[in-house]
Amino acid sequence: MRQTDVLIVGAGPTGLALGIDLARRGVDALVVERGETLAPGSRGKGLQPRTMEVYEDLGVLDEILAAGGPYPVGMIWQDGRQAGEHRMFDPAEDGEEGSRFTGPWMVPQWRNQEILRARLEELGAGVTFGREVVRLEQDPNGVTAHFASGEPVRARYAVAADGGRSAVRRSLGIGMTGETVDPDPLLVADVRITGLERAWWHVFPPGGEGAGFLALCPLAGTEDFQLVARFPDGTDIDLSPDGIRKVVADRTHLAPEDVTEVRWSSNFRPRAALADRFREGRIFLAGDAAHVHSPAGGQGLNTSVQDAYNLGWKLGAVLSGRAPAALLDTYEEERRPIAANVLGLSTAIHRDEARRGAGTRQLGLNYRDSSLSDETRTAPGALRAGDRVPDMTVNGVRLFDLLRGPEWTLLKLEEGVFLVRPDGYVGWAGETEEGVEGYRARVGA
Question: pTM for the whole thing?
Fold first, then answer.
C-alpha cells in the first residue's frame, strides 16, 4: 500500500495549487484524478488580482501572464449592428488596493491547469490519472483511500478537491445548503469562429421568438471564443456541433458555417451552495467540493485556489511537527465565512443586484475575526491582524519579495511590528516585538 502525507482527490486548479504549496514545503502529497487527462474546456477563465498574487508566490505568475490577457470591453449587438460598448468590470486605479493587479486576468481553465501541473512536476510531484476514489476510511492515525482500480493509498490527511459533485463529500455524508440561482440552463462551449473581431467581448441580448442571451468572448492566448448561451427552463440543450452552430446562427448575424470548430461544450444550471462543514476528521473539503458558485463575477475558481493557499501552510506546519493539530481547525473557521460571503456576492452579480467591482477582486478579504489573528496594539493602524499585507515598497524594498516563500515573516514598519503568515496575512501585530514569541509558540511559527 502506498503511503503519503496528504492525498489530494482532484486535479483541478484547487488540487493542483494545494499540491504545489505542499510540495514546496517538502510534504509528500499525492494528487489523484479520476479522468485520464486534465479536464478540458475554458470553464472558469478569470483570475482575480488576489489569485494573481497567490500565483506569484507559488511560482507560476510569469507563465500565467504569458498565457493570458486582460478582459476585452463588451460590444452590444442589435440587429446585426454594433449598438454600444459595455464594461464588464469596474476598473481600479493603479495601486488602489495595494496591488500591482487592477482587474481580472483571462486564462482558460485548461491552460491554467497545464501551467499548475508543470509547476507541480517541476517540484518533483505530479498527478496520477485514472484513479477514481470509491471509498475513504479513516481512523485516529490516518485515511485509507480505495479506488475503482489499483491498490489503496494510505495518507495522514486527505483533501477533497473533486468538484461540485464531489464523491468524497457525498461519501462523508456532508450536506450542502443552497439554491438555484437561475432556473434557466446555460450552454458553454469553446469554439472557433470567423467573422468576429477578437478585440471585443461580443454580447447578443435576447431577441424575438424566444431567442435568449448569447455571448462570445475571445479567449486570451488562444484562437478560441468562449460561447455562453441561456435557454428557457426545461430546454434539452443540443451540445452537438450542429446544435451549437444553429444557436449561433439563430441569435447572431453569423451563419452556421462561421463556427468552424467546436472544441468543447457543456451545460449547467447556475446554483449557489455551501457545504455544511469543511472537515470530517482527517478529511478536508476545498474548492467546488465545499462551495459552488454562479460563474457571474468570476469568483468560484479564485475562492477555490485561496482555499488551497490557506490549507497548505497549515497542513505543512502540522505534518512537520512545528504546530499543534488544532491549527487545522482554523481552516474551516477562516474559509467557510469567506466562501459564504463570496457566494452572496456572485449570486447578487448574477441577478444584476451588484457590480463587478472591488469585492470581486478579493483583495479586501480578511481574517480579522479569526482565532489566529492577534491584534495587541491599543491604537491599530490601517494594517491590522488578519489583513492581507499590501504589495508596497518600503525603503526601496518590495514587501512581497520579503514575504515570498513558505515561511512566516517578521515585518517592522512605521506603524508597528507584524508577524506575517505564510499566506500573506498578518497573524500578530504589536507596537514592539514584545509578545510575539508567545504567539509563535502557539501557532508553530
Answer: 0.96
